[in-house]
Write a structure and sequence with these properties.
The complex is a heterodimer of chains A (254) and B (314). Chain A is α/β, with parallel strands linked by helices. Chain A has one domain: HUPs (Rossmann fold), CATH 3.40.50. Helix content of chain A is 29%, strand content 28%. Chain A is built from seven helices and 13 strands. Chain A has a nine-stranded mixed β-sheet with strand order 9-8-7-10-6-1-4-5-11, sandwiched between helices. A two-stranded antiparallel ribbon of chain A has the order 2-3. In chain A, a hairpin with a 2-residue loop joins strand 8 and strand 9. Chain B folds into two domains: 171 residues, Rossmann fold; 125 residues, 3-Layer(aba) Sandwich (Rossmann fold). Chain B is built from eight helices and 17 strands. In chain B, strands 9-8-7-10-6-1-4-5-11 form a nine-stranded mixed β-sheet, with helices on both faces. A five-stranded parallel β-sheet of chain B has the order 14-13-15-16-17. Chain B starts with a strand and ends with a helix. The chains are: A alpha/beta (254), B alpha/beta (314). Chains A and B meet through helix 4, helix 5, strand 7, strand 8 and strand 9 of A and helix 3, helix 4, strand 7, strand 8 and strand 9 of B. Strand 9 of chain A pairs antiparallel with strand 12 of chain B.
Chain lengths: 254, 314
């Protein structure tokens, strides 16, 4: 089984972000810790589990701009066999369709059985790449999966869609996007961390595709904070009475 | 400017996020048409008419969801539109990129505000940053669910235009083999007007009955914080927050939830927020309209009784 895992390296959302001087984006400073995108990490873990069950190899593919190698090595320490890194800041900041096309150029020749990535990139809040790649390669996609079974014949995956559980069956090749709950990503062990340093990482500057910038980010700001809350103290009866009165007379919800 | 909106529905009923998407479409321009695919498409067209759409392109007789087929139908119906709008649902997020590829359009995902027809606000980095983006060319938009208002119901009717669907090579590769109904008969989190959520203060899984009982009385959905989902006490489908669902109901009741940033990211847009927590310093109190400082095990039983009583007298 050949599994390709798409791995985006993103700023940890726990970072205390600053806005850059132009006011258009976050400031790229040393306080940012770069990590494997949390949902992509579920994809990495799923890919490794497939290899452990059925044999084969796992290749990671990343579009980056210079902060990625540490995270790719971590994925290798988890069990990814080799990596491809397209290092191109212009591409990374282009619109998602250009990125999907660049990934297609890299991924299609690998002839993978399964391509897996996260359901969402937490930095740009895009859920675009997996389904777009499916359309570009004309192969099926099952997105936002929370359970997965892989056999030699194909995959069975379930997901939560608006309160219903949908169970899909697909043959290979197929693209999957991972939701939380799919698995628990493992912590790399020391011998694997040592081994990961020597695993092949193929670095390129371009995927040979056109870079289109149809989306311009003109402003970045911190969300408006809700006005200060109102605390109510007293006995449990007083608390409940004030709340119910407020919800019936003022908010008119009850 | 021609605007298309995908009217996501299930068994003849529009999902709430699709109604919100209609509102977004109408705020961008007046030349709006809907695209409906349903086994009971007549009901969907009727509902869309009441929500103010004058034209719906409809594919009838499709009994089950198929991502590639849906993408093809929507592309064929929407390819001449300038803006194509999708609700921010699992289906919307799955189909919209495929339609965008076919149109070679510009994707703008997960918008939280319309500035003008080509300028939108988005929420980035787990809602820590809001960004304004300008897009060129034909645009494929997805709209974050739970943010925008549903248009008011009127007495309009929509004209129906038939669209056809053909089976394509490759469709048989994948199928939706089974749809399992939700495990509970409660309203779904993202569809709910009222949500009651429980957090670490609940202590043990069995105590979650307090949350469920209040939710039952209020006709509310049940939510949970990351802490108790990670502890295995509740399923991930109930998790509210950055790594769970983004919700903005009319009333959000946070019980025993301290209010970590990751949780606030998912619910701070709720209209009215109630917090019940014995820790006066809990960050949830900074955003709570009604911050009840008290022991949830004392407050909740009384609150459940008071809601019952309020309903009787109403």
């Amino acid at each position: 089984m050949k599994v390709v895992t798409l791995l985006k390296v993103t700023p940890d959302t726990e970072t205390k972000f600053q806005i850059n001087s132009a006011g258009t984006d976050i400031a790229e400073d040393s306080s940012i810790e770069y990590i494997i995108g949390p949902y992509d990490e579920y994809g990495v873990e799923a890919a490794i589990q497939i290899k452990e069950k059925l044999g084969g190899e796992v290749i990671s593919v990343t579009i980056g701009s210079g902060n990625e190698e540490k995270s790719i090595r971590k994925a290798m320490a988890m069990g990814v066999d080799s990596g491809i890194l397209i290092n191109n800041a212009d591409l990374k900041s282009s619109d998602p369709l250009s990125i999907a096309k660049a990934i297609k150029e890299v991924v299609e020749p690998l002839n993978a059985d399964i391509i897996i990535c996260g359901k969402l990139a937490t930095d740009t809040s895009d859920s675009f790449i997996g389904p777009a790649l499916a359309a570009l390669m004309n192969i099926p996609v099952i997105s936002e999966i929370s359970s997965l079974e892989v056999t030699e014949e194909g995959v069975v995956a379930t997901r939560d869609a608006a309160g219903r559980k949908e169970r899909f069956e697909s043959k290979f090749p197929v693209i999957l996007t991972a939701d939380k709950g799919l698995n628990e990503p493992r912590y790399p062990k020391l011998p694997m961390i040592m081994k990961a340093k020597k695993k092949p990482l193929d670095k390129k500057d371009t995927a040979g595709t056109e870079i289109r910038k149809n989306v311009t980010q003109v402003k970045a700001e911190f969300p408006a904070t809700k006005s200060a809350g109102k605390k109510i103290t007293g006995t449990p009866d007083e608390l409940v009475s004030e709340l119910v009165t407020g919800l019936t007379t003022k908010e008119k919800i009850l | 400017m021609s605007i298309a909106v995908f009217l996501e529905s299930y068994n003849g009923k529009l999902v709430k996020a699709a109604k919100e998407a209609i509102g977004v479409a109408k705020s961008i321009g007046s030349d709006v048409f809907g695209i409906a695919i349903d086994n009971n498409v007549d009901a969907v067209i009727e509902e869309a008419g009441k929500l103010g759409l004058s034209t719906v392109k409809a594919a009838a007789g499709i009994t089950i969801y198929h991502p590639a087929m849906y993408s093809r139908i929507i592309f064929n119906a929407a390819k001449d539109a300038d803006v194509v709008i999708f609700p921010g649902t699992v289906w919307g997020r799955e189909i919209s990129p495929q339609v965008c590829v076919k149109m070679d359009a510009t994707p703008v995902s997960d918008i939280i505000k319309v500035v003008d027809a080509s300028t939108f606000k988005r929420s980035l980095h787990g809602n820590k940053i809001h960004a304004t983006v300008k897009a060129e060319g034909k645009i494929v938009l997805t709209v974050r669910a739970g943010i925008f208002d549903v248009p008011e119901l009127g007495d309009g009717t929509a004209n129906r235009e038939e669209i056809t669907s053909e089976v394509a090579e490759g469709d048989a590769m994948i199928k939706l083999a089974e749809i399992l109904a939700s495990s509970s008969d409660r309203v779904e989190l993202t569809e709910a007007d009222i949500i009651v959520s429980g957090g670490r203060g609940i202590g043990e899984a069995t105590n979650f009955k307090l949350i469920e009982d209040l939710a039952t009385e209020l006709g509310a959905a049940v939510g949970a914080s990351r802490a108790i989902v990670d502890a295995g006490m509740r399923p991930h489908s109930e998790q509210v927050g950055q790594t769970g669902k983004f919700v903005a109901p009319k009333l959000y009741i946070a019980v025993g939830i301290s209010g970590a940033i990751q949780h606030l990211a998912g619910m701070s847009s709720s209209e009215t927020i109630v917090a019940i927590n014995k820790d006066e310093e809990a960050p949830i109190f900074k955003i709570a309209d009604y911050g009840l400082v008290g022991d949830l095990f004392e407050v909740m039983p009384k609150l459940i009784e008071a809601v019952k009583a309020a309903k009787k007298s109403a």
